[in-house]
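dumping the sequnces here before i forget
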Amino acid sequence: MRDVERLVSASRPEWPEPPAVVEERMLASLGLTAPRPAPAGWLRRAPRSRRLRLLVVGAALAASGTALGVALIDRSGGSGAGAPASLAFEPPVAPLRSTAFLDGQDLAVGGGGEVVVVAARAGGVVAVARAGGTWGGPVRLSDPRARARNPAVAAGPGGRAVAVWRERVPGREVSARFTLPGGAPAGSLTVRLGTRWRAVASVRAAAGWSPPEPVSPPARRERDVRAPDVVMTDSGEAIAAFALDGRVWMVRRGATGAWGRPVPLSQGPEVATDPALAIDPASGWSLAVWASRIHDARVGRRWSVQAAVRPPGRAWEPSRTLAAGLPGSPFPAAAINGRGEAVVVWQADGTRAATRSAAGSWSEAELIAEASPAPLPGSVVVGPRGEALALTSAPSGPAGAGRTVSLLLRRPPGGAWAPAAPTLAAGARLLTLDRTGRVMLLRAPAGGPVDVVAPGRGRARLAGLGTPIALAIGRDGTVAAAGVRSTRQPGSILTVAVAPGAARR
Amino acid sequence: MDARSDADLVSAARAGDREAAAHLVRRHWRAAWRRAYAITGRSALADDVAQDAMATALERLDELGDADRFGAWLATIAARRALDALRSDGRIAPIEEAPESAVEWVDLPGDGAEVRRAVAALPPERRVAIVMRFWLDHTPTEIAAALGVPVGTVNSRLARGLSELRRLLEGSPRA
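..and the predicted 3d for all of it:
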């Protein structure tokens, strides 16, 4: 082999591991399964601004057919005034009215039952809202030149909503023409200089959606701006998170006024990515979790899980490392209640969890479920008294059978994690909590129907939803479930089913 | 992960089994992504290419002759899509000022950053041939089949690509 060939062969790079969120997005766009509850995907593992978790009340350990009302969450505390989640679902509709390759989508329900959906398709972010029982038309939020993607949305009081996404800021186009020595034209070259990437936001008020406004400084490369997340309190305060140049940042916007300066949350040399936010909308307690990676020359890439908490009206506390030295991306999910009690779960050779007390101390990480062959997206909720429920996966059948089942795990206040409600857990995909402390589960067993279950109260079948990817509940009990359906055309159709709150029916 | 063979998963997916299709995606998407990344040099493009290639493969499952060769077939689709993406995206390239390169694998760990920089500077067709030959370990025949061009064309691109690399690396005036 000649020298230059040997040089080229020897310069083969260490190929990076592709981000797992690509798989989630790919499966969702193909209409094959629900994406993971990751910051860049549908399922926000953290309680979003209106996505309160419902803990399953009334697990049916139903040998006798009698449903036993096992209170998995003590509802006596309540997380704030609000109505129970509705089960009066209307048939699913396709609010975007077209088939498309979706590059990120999100769903939120506002305080008055408004449903807001955002999606990225063909390089643009669009929003569509349902108010008063009627869906409006899609509204384009991003600049058509901006190659926008990975949107997130939060909804609050009075029809207010905030959408965030990342987009490209095209630089200036520079052209040069070249000529041969004899003067004949040889061709031209056009390049674009100064292209940047950034996280931006648009705010929805009575007058409609505002023009996009940057919430992050610009980054030189697309990969340096990771998918943003956003949550909102009952008073309309919005908090957005994004990863920029290897650090996680937070930026806050009051109910009125402008976005503040971004505040860095992550520390150290690790590359922080994919922040996810959790909030108790009534109190304003907020929690951010993210994964960080670092390259160790001896063992290669290693991951850690980090978290930071913001008490209401105060600054973010210093971030904490909950786990380190993990061999794979951990996909953390988190929840927090109105007393600052929080739970974070992640994947590291099984499902692991750490809890935060009201006093602010974090527990050591513990294994709560064994590793399964095909880990399912994890999610967690925390009730008003600190009890927690996690939805994860577990291996099933003989060793090597390669089967995975959904698993619900409950942790009473000050207690230990233990499996709960196996009958309800079967096929469970999404877990959430309403303002009254009631649990709601979305189940989609393989080959089976899609059901929304409110244990102890009933269930609703969502025929035509497709593969479920999101579940959100508003303060007034309005529930929205989103799914994707594949079609003959390339792409998929986004579907949404809404159960209006009691006041709207 | 599902223990069924690719052939079984393809048969099931053809019959409408969405779980089987999902398992095919989970099993093969990373390889398609890495191929797309190696060819385009950009993770964002690789995301799009891998997704597009997988969608195409699942749409055209009936065209796959040997069901056991789903992975290789997907790789072919990914390579062609990646080259298309490179061509269409290369006209307006976000060229930044030094020292950053628009091709991400220039800065990856490992020796030979200067060589990688030179490879990144090649025209798309030659760069793809060089990457597939020396970094993805394909024969010229395999590259020709993947890209849908004659073997002679591949050999020509390899020869010219290597010649240009020699010039870039040695400072020789020869093209």
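The longest helix of chain B spans residues 18-40.
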